[in-house]
Amino acid sequence: MFKFLLILFLIGYLIFKVGGFFFRLFLGRTARTAQERQYKENNRGRKTKDGIHIDHVPSQKGKRTGGNFKGGEYVDYEDV
After folding, report:
1. What digits encode the pLDDT tens for the residues 7-40?
2. 3-class DSSP state for residue 47?
3. Higher pLDDT, 77 or 6
4. Do 54 and 46 form a contact (C-beta atoms < 8 A)?
5. Rounded to two decimals, what is the model's pTM?
6. Non-local CB neighbours of 46 within 8 Å, separated by 6+ positions
7. CB 38, CB 30: distance < 8 Å
8. Over the Cα atoms of the chain, what is R_g?
9. What is the pLDDT of residue 10?
């Protein structure tokens, strides 16, 4: 009975160690490919016809520009 439990324990320990190795190997590959994909996405950028590299163009959504400002209320300030 003791031999059986010892062998069972050793087999379980071996499976635990080998399974952990394969899990880390698989997880490492997955993390590396995700990291490479993210790096390529971030460094994609755009180039103009003159060869100028543009990293980021901010969106104009919700910002006031000179063209869409309709005016405001006139306030007359008096000198004190």
Report:
1. 999 999 999 999 888 888 888 889 889 888 888 7
2. strand
3. 6
4. yes
5. 0.38
6. 53, 54, 57
7. no
8. 32
9. 95
Task: With beta carbons less than 8 A apart as the criterion, state whether 6 and 13 touch.
Answer: no
Calpha distance 59→50 (Å, rounded) = 22
Residue whose token pair is 């309709």: 70
User: What are phi and psi for residue 33, nearest 5 degrees?
Assistant: -65, -40
Q: Kindly state the tokens that stand for 60.
A: 């104009």
Q: Tokens 């209320």 — which residue?
A: 73
Q: Which residues contact 47 (CB under 8 A, 6 or more apart)?
A: 53, 54
Q: Two tokens at 61? A: 């959504």
Strand 53-54 and strand 46-47: the pairing is: antiparallel
